[in-house]
Amino acid sequence: MKILLVEDNPQVAQFVRKGLTEAGHAVDHADNGRDGLFLASSETYDVLVLDRMLPGGIDGLGIIEALRRTGNTTPILILSALADVDERIRGLKAGGDDYLTKPFAFGELEARLVALARRGQSASQDTVLKAGDLSLDILSRKASRAGKAIALKPREYKLLEYLMRHAGQVVTRTMLLENVWDYHFDPQTNVIDVHISNLRQKIDAGFERPLLHTVRGAGYRLSEDA
Amino acid sequence: MPRVLRSTAMRLALVFASLFMVAALLLAGLLWWSTAGYLDRETDAVIAADTRAIGDRLSDFGLAGAVQTMNERIAADADQRAIYLLTDPRLRPLGGNVDAWPLKVGARPGWYEIELVHRDRLHVSRLLHVILPGNYQLLVGRDVQDRVEIRNLFLRGLAWAGLAAVAFALFGAWLIRRAVERRIEGINRTATAIVQGDLARRVPLRNTDDEFDQLVATINRMLDQMQQLIEGVRNVSNAIAHDLRTPLAETRARLEGLLRQPAGAEASLDGIAGAIADIDRLIGVFNALLRLAELDTGLRRAGFARIDLTALVEDAVELYAPAAEARGIALTSAASPGLSITGDRHLLAQAVGNLLDNAVKYTPAGGSIHLTAGPAEDGGIAITVADSGPGIPEAERGKAIQRFYRGDASRHAEGVGLGLSLVDAVARLHGGELRLEANNPGLLAVLALPPSA
Predict the structure, then answer these.
(1) Which helix (H) or strand (E) holds A136?
(2) Interface contact flag, A105 B287, Cβ < 8 Å
(3) What mean pLDDT is predicted for residues B14-35?
(4) Does the structure's ipTM exceed the value 0.90?
(5) Domain termination site, one of A64, A99, A124
(6) Model confidence at A205, in pLDDT bands (50, 70, 90)?
(7) Which of residues 296-355 of B touch A (CB under 8 A)?
């Protein structure tokens, strides 16, 4: 993926850039709003990472608004030290696609960037989602693996649908909380892990190859390969 | 403006004094008009009637008739106050009881009030000068010396009374000022003491339930709240200092240990992961503190909307059910259908989540948690979470809501002691409250939301 990072804090910028480069992405970096807007509008990126508060006369929200006005629909993740829910809403209203509060775990950032970039690429119109021999029919809301029907509770269905739409990608606990439950707080108990292990019971138990993997320190991944 | 006039009390008192004096003057004027004024008007009417009568006589019976009438009237005047003088056009007297035309009465007819020698007495007299047919000059009047004296007496009395009124008004003003200043002095002294650091000081009440007492009661309530807040801040600062030092010290020790290990050792990777986990916990604490601060300002009310509380509660139960089950705890719920409230969906979800989180954390395996949501007795909505855990001793329940409080039972459990504070803050943002009660055994947490919300 080709990623533009607009971040004025040198430590954060170096940390993100190094991490993303090591993960195999091409990263351009601007340390102020003006240069960031110039790069974002002159080059083509898969996803943009913008800090909220930037020097250079134009801040993160300003860049987003300027890009969206010119019809640029590149997915944008906002990085911000402003944790208020209201700030988050403002960021998303301005045209941002996701919002991550500093400090953050690198795994969280990467997982969200991959999810954003994929969403930009393929707005899948398929009515049946597939991962290996697991398939999920969106119309009839039925899941089956190797032809064997799997009974799912409504929430388990939503959870599996989200995982399958992001098959092959890492999804974090917060991504699941936000997208499957629409919760924007961090439960202290490992509630998500238990939901995942229940789902794993249903889709993996009795099969030789597990599909739902735990990615240490990051989250989960649904994919054929381990 | 002179300093004395800058006093609100003094100004108030002076305004009242002025009003008082205006009222007194009006009263005196009315009195005058209806007593002395009435007599004056009567006298004038009598004089006018006399001149008309004599004029009629002159035209009917000639000069002799007029003079006769005058003489009759003079004779009949027992008080000897009547004054008559009829002269020819050249002012030579023809009849009456005045010797010569008074110099002070001019040629023009009309009313005069002059000093006149009459019956050897120099008295103030009220006179009417008319010119009769034939250019005869008629002067009719009354000696009004008595009335003038009464009038002067009245005016003098009025002047003294006015002076007394001013004196009383000023004295009253001073009294009011002193009273107001005394009451304000109490407030002032208390405020000064508080500024100097004596937060426990309160304005003394007089138990008169007057406006000042009501004000003082309000001020005292405000001071109570301020003191509570300041102590809260103080406690939180202390708690932050103590509670955050421990994990920071652990992290520091861990990192220092790593520094002494050979590079790339498997143990050092675990150590780093541990240090990151420690820091994540600290970040969690800061996030919770920030959210509490945000809630305390009440600004979040801007994001209120109508929300389906039944669905919210059921979602929360659904989220925690597997976690409870995994720990061998039976989580059951009973939510009335169609509960709706104006509020912040995310915050209420977090509040209910925190209550369930606590319950799951402290309930031992084999225990049970029961959540209910439904109409409360006061017309509001109550969400209750009852568990069969160790509960909180009655004496500690108030403290349990305070920030960073950790009971003996939770001393070694995970968490930082902000969960219930947050629930309480969310409840208060919605105009409700969090109550902790005994569940025998266990804890019954009641999140009470008011009817209006």
Answers:
(1) strand A134-137
(2) no
(3) 81
(4) no
(5) A124
(6) confident
(7) 299-300, 302-303, 315, 318-320, 322-323, 325-326, 346, 349-350, 353
